[in-house]
Structure formats: structure tokens, C-alpha cells
Amino acid sequence: MEKTASQKKKDMIRIERESVIPVLKPKLIMSLANLIEHSSDRAEFLKLCKRIEYTIRAWYLLQFEDLMQLYSLFDPVHGNQKLEQQNLSPKEIDVLEQNFLTYLLQVMEKSNFKIATDEEIEIAHSGQYLLNLPIVVDESKIDKKLLKNFFAENPQQNLPDFADKYIIFRRGVGLDQTTDYFFMEKVDMIIARFWAYLLRITRAEKLLSRRSSSRHTKDPKKDDEITSEADGEEAEDLYVERIRLENMELSVKSLLSKTTIKEPTFDRIIVVYRRASTKAKEERGIFVKHFKNIPMADMEIVLPEKKNPGLTPMDWVKFLGSAVVGLVAVISSLEMPNADFWVIIAVLSTVIGYCAKIYFSFQQNLAAYQNLITQSMYDKQLDSGRGTLLHLCDDVIQQEVKEVILSFYILMEQGKATREDLDRWCEELIKEEFGASCNFDVDDAVGKLEKLGIVSRDSVGRYFCVGLKRANEIIGTTTEELVMRAKQGKQGNSS
Questions:
Q1: How confident is the model at residue 246 (pLDDT cuts 50, 70, 90)?
Q2: Using CA atoms, how far apart are residues 398 and 56, in angstroms rounded to an integer?
Q3: Which of 142, 244, 328, 381 has the fewest CB atoms within 10 Å of its CB?
Q4: Are 48 and 472 in contact (CB under 8 A)?
């Protein structure tokens, strides 16, 4: 496609490829099995896949049980009762909660969740999508000791400024789009642009910029805006376009017509925090909340303990405009030679009534926005607490199984391979067979295969696998298979 100099920069967000294999395990296994030519080998491969899954699940069972037992002590609903039954000292409870967070972060890492950094949060907050009222956290309602103590003992790189109060884990990226008239939002945007113009011509903008310069030393979006000429560069990363009202040219036609806006989403978000203790009660509960498909610009909806939103620029203009109109009307009435007292009362009543109408309209809009937040939370919150942890544990197993099966299949088909070749071939197979891309975690996969005893290395470090039948013999019959055989035998006898 030919590119001209008149093309404008697009608002693009560059996102690193993640290690999550975006293919369902049953589909992955059946697709690989169908690529095997001989039916006998296909049957052995399917048996091996089951044995690999059963074995990996057994490996993680004890670790997951420890995690769930620890969380039962810090469950916000019933945790306090269990802590009281244990008769533990405060120091012992502190050790247990730090152990829980250690296990939790290990599971998060295995599930390929990453802690959102300040730069990612700033990019997300640099625009608006469907949520237009400012939303902030009421920090007085959030504990600041739990996470601060944990990260003091377990330092991590690129922690956000709010990491002492809550952590936001994110994984995966999608795209959400909405088509609507957005009439009120467009009017609000016009007012905001007019206000910015007034600040420029009155030079008040410089005074305000000095105050905010210390906080905004860098515009993160500038690193993420690429021209169309950059298409194809850095193919290893994913570029997602952001289409927002703020960047559109508004006219009478666009004001009265439908508009489509697009926003990248975080496919999964998990928020961890603890509420602040009060004089009457010491809080020990740890909240773990799980969300899906959260637009980056509306990420405020997942924040814990939110304050009620305030007025928008459009609301302020309405209030100030009404006050100015009322003041001018009253002064004009007083300056008339035959000022009528009842006329002045009528003007004041009209202005006051209009201001009241604006106020109640704002309250109605506020309720509507709170409704939007509540609805979004209801639609987008997957689970919380124990349900989230169970989901994470299963997620770890599914990913590990897919990595191991895919690596074994490649070695079975290609023969010997270096780590780099195996990594590249796995990624190519995912791309060719499933039309998806990921940053394959080859080290974890071959580590599991070596632990299973079905993959070894030769004298020069190349990986190679045993045959399918031999692999099944090495792993052996699993407990799950024995249970299934016993169950089938019992059903056969009863029939």
C-alpha cells in the first residue's frame, strides 16, 4: 500500500507478546493428533497427553492445597473466625499472610500474569472510553502495611507507586469497540477544547503547566504513537490502535452522527488488596478480585474502595453560565427606570430553578454513571477470593500441559533440536495451525519434559525425545487411569 506524507499519526499502543498459548487444550491436542499419520501412533499420543496432564496436576496438588489452606485464614468472609480458632499470635499471623502472598505471586507468574507498571497505568489513563467521570481511590479505606512489608522482604522491579496499597495484575490484550452518538461526550469535548483555547490565549496555560510539569515529565503515549510507515517493524510485538473522541475532528455532521470508538482491553485483571483496619476491628482479610475484558482507558472500574466521582467540565460550565446569566439579568432589571420587584423575583426564581435543574440533572447523571460502574463490575467480574484462586490453579495446569505436549510433538516430528530451534518451531506451529502468536516459554517446557524423563540432551546440548510407546511406559499408569478402569469394570459387572 502506498503511503503519502499527509497521513497522520495513529494512536497506537505497542504490546509485548505474552507467553500464554491462546488455544484451548482439547483443540490443541486433537489438532496435533490429527497431524499424526498412523492411527496406532495417534492413540499412543492421546494416551501420553492424558498421562502428562495427570502427572503435572499431581505435581501442583500439594502447592495448591497449601495456597488454599492459607487463603482460608485470610478470606474476608470467614477468615477471622478461623484465625480465632487457631489461637495464633500477631507475629505468626504476619508470617502466614506473607507466605500466602509468596504462593500467590508464584501462581500469578506461572499463569503469565504481570504486575501493571506505572507506565502501563499512565498509558491506560491517558484517554477516556465509556467512563467519563474522574474516579480515584479512597486511600483512607485501604491498608498500607501488608503489601509494603511484603515487597520490602521480596523486592521486585518496576513496581507502581500504589504497590503499597493494592496490586493490579494483568494478562492478555483484546479490543473493544462501541458505536453510538456520544452526543453529551462530544459536547463536553467541545467545551474542554474551548476552555483549553481560552487558557492559551490568556497565557494561563503556562501557570498551570508549571504546577504539573514535575508529575508529567514524560508523555508515555509518545513512545507508543507510530506512523503508518512503521507498520511491519518490530513484528515481534503487537500494535493495537486506539480510536478516541479526544483525537477526532468534531463538526456539526460528526456531532449528529454515530461514531465508532475503539479501545484495547486487558483480557484478564486481578486486583489484590486489604481494607484498612479501624479502632474497633483489625482487618486481616485479603481481597482477590478477578475481572475480564477491561478497557484500558476505563481501568478505574477495577480500583478498590472508589470515591464518588465529581463534576465534569461541562457541569461546571453549566453552573457558571447559569450564574452569569442570572447575574446579568438581575443587574439589567435593576438598571431599568421602572424596575418591577416582581419581575426581579421572576428572574431570580427562573435562574434558581434552572440551577436546581442542572444540579438534579448532575445527580441523575451521577447515578447513571454509578449504574454503569456497577453494571460493568457485574458483567466483567469473573470471580473473587477462593473462586479466583481455583481458576488460577487450573490455569497454571492448562498452560503447563499445553507447553509440554507441544514441545514433545515438535521433538517427535523434527528429531533433535537446540533450545532456540525448539522455541522457534513451537511458535511457528502455533501460528500456522491456529493463526495465533505467543512468546513460547521453552525453558519451562523442556524442564518439565526432562523431569518426566521422556526428553534428554545429547553431548552437544540438543534435545531429543523417546518414542511414544516408551514415553508412556516411562510415565506409567496414573492413579486417574486406575480409578477410571475400576469405575468401568464396576459398570461392566453391574450390567
A1: confident
A2: 9
A3: 328
A4: yes
pLDDT tens-digit readout, 397-428:
999 999 999 999 999 999 899 999 999 999 99
Q: What is the distance between the alpha carbons of residues 39 and 27, in angstroms, rounded to a whole number?
A: 18
Report the 10 Å Cβ neighbour count for 387.
12
Q: In the structure grid, which three cell numbers stand for residue 297, read together? A: 482507558
Q: Which residues contact 77 (CB under 8 A, 6 or more apart)?
A: 285, 385
Structural contact between residues 22 and 243, judged by C-beta atoms closer than 8 angstroms: no
- pLDDT, tens digit, 9 for 90 and up, residues 109-156: 888 899 998 887 887 777 677 776 667 888 899 999 999 999 999 998
Rounded to whole angstroms, what are the CA distances from 426 to 420, 423, 471?
A: 10, 5, 20
Q: Are 464 and 455 in contact (CB under 8 A)?
A: yes
Of residues 431, 433, 476, the one with CA closest to residue 453:
476
Tell me the three cell numbers of residue 273.
488488596
Give pLDDT tens digits for 36-74.
999 999 999 999 999 999 999 999 988 899 999 999 999
DSSP 8-state secondary structure symbol assigned to residue 303: -
Q: How many Cα atoms within 13 Å fall on the side-chain side of residue 182?
A: 25
Give the number of other CB atoms < 10 A from CB of residue 446. 22
Mean pLDDT of the chain: 80
The three three-digit cell numbers of residue 396, written as one number = 497454571
What is the grid cell recorded at 14?
Answer: 505497542
SS3 477: coil
The conformation of residue 238, written as its DSSP 8-state character, comes to E
Q: Residue 349 phi/psi, 5° resolution?
A: -60, -40
CB 372 within 8 A of CB 130: yes
